Here is the input.
Amino acid sequence: MDTLWASVLWGAVGSGFFIYGKKQDKTVPLIGGLVMIGSTYFCETALVMSVVGVAVTAGIWWLTKRGVGEE
Here is the structure.
């Protein structure tokens, strides 16, 4: 049951990043959102899924602060 809730949570966060990246024409959140959505399919436990979700979120934040992917 925990895996289901983690999947819903990180899938929603990933969808938010994807939609934001698409509307703002920013590649880092767009690709990060796709990676986060895809990771929910391949992670088997809620803990692994949460670690991957936090890592991808931190990566998106870090790359955005560095100005990577801005046109």
Notes: The chain has one domain: 2-66.
